[in-house]
Amino acid sequence: MNGIGIVFNIDDLGGGFYGSKAWRIFMRNLPPENIIGCMLKEGDTQQTLNGSQREFCIAVFGLALEDAVVRKVFENCSEKGLAPAARRFISSPGSELLVDAGFIDLLGRLVQDEWSRMFHDRCKDCGWGFAPKSVTVDLTPELKAELENLRGKTVPLAAQEAAKKRAEELERKQKEAERKRREEEEKRRAEEQKRRQAEEARRKAEDERRARVQAARKSSGQCMMCGQSLGFVLRLLGKDRHGRCTSFKE
Ligand SMILES: [Zn+2]
Asked: Is residue 133 one of the residues assigned to a domain?
């Protein structure tokens, strides 16, 4: 699956609650319509876990992800907290030990399993829609109203349509590739069978030819294996081959 990781410098984020600060930069700069249908993950980078860096990563994954668009947004971003240009992107974030942070649904809203104050506030700050699957805490009437608002905050219809079209196109291409793969497999199997049948026919013809040669040798008093004359004594004994001849020679 396509993916791109945006890397943040933990010290430049100002330490404590750095994850929340990284998300604010991420969400403030990247309109969700650019990553519809994509999954989000977050976490300290591998090198940070090893102790050689102090970096945090937010990664986007998706079959239809246009990673160049995401890259461009953050290439041109000068907000403090992003890692320096040379370390800002991880192009294969699948190998990082990141944890799930939800996905962007087809309406362009951030979907997470559970409501959290952190993402509620980040979405509100940054103009993202927020549609948690469950709310396990009692929300104040004010937060409840805000959440309803966030649930209704969808990206423009044109962006939804474009994302849907892209997903459909991708699905069509995948099906086409799968069909081609199956056809080729079928063809390969047919060729293999043909090859096996030809081999079988060749062996059978060989056996028949050999049987004919042996029958001819036998009737003319020759060794069935080497084709040389058997000699009077062996013929008298009713032998059809030399004792030492065990493999057929032309
Ligand atoms: Zn012989």
From this structure: yes
The verdict on residue 165 lying in a domain is no
d(CA 169, CA 177): 12
How remote is the CA of residue 206 from the centroid of ligand 1, in Å?
Answer: 20
Alpha-carbon gap, residue 179 to 186, rounded angstroms: 10
Residues in the chain with pLDDT values less than 70: none
At 41 the pLDDT is 98
Token pair 């905050």 in the structure block, residue:
153
Res 167: pLDDT: 86
Domain count for the chain, please give it.
2
Structure tokens at 83: 């890692």
Tell me, in angstroms, the distance from the centre of ligand 1 to residue 230's CA.
7
Q: Give me ligand 1 centre to Cα 213, in Å.
A: 13
Q: Which residue has the tokens 């991708």?
A: 170
Closest CA to 234 of 249, 221, 247: 221
The answer to whether residue 63 is domain-embedded is: yes
Number of H helices, E strands in the chain: 7, 7
Name the residue range of residue 243's domain: 220-250
Nearest Cα neighbor of 71 from 81, 80, 82 is: 82
Considering the domain boundaries, does residue 182 fall inside one? Answer: no
Output the pTM of the full model.
0.73
Quick: pLDDT tens for 128-147. 999 999 999 999 999 999 99
Please give the distance, rounded to the nearest whole angstrom, from the Cα atom of residue 241 to the centre of ligand 1.
5
SS3 91: coil
50 alpha carbon – ligand 1 mean position (Å): 77
DSSP of 182-227: HHHHHHHHHHHHHHHHHHHHHHHHHHHHHHHHHHHHHHTTB-TTT-
Q: How remote is the CA of residue 250 from the centroid of ligand 1, in Å?
A: 11
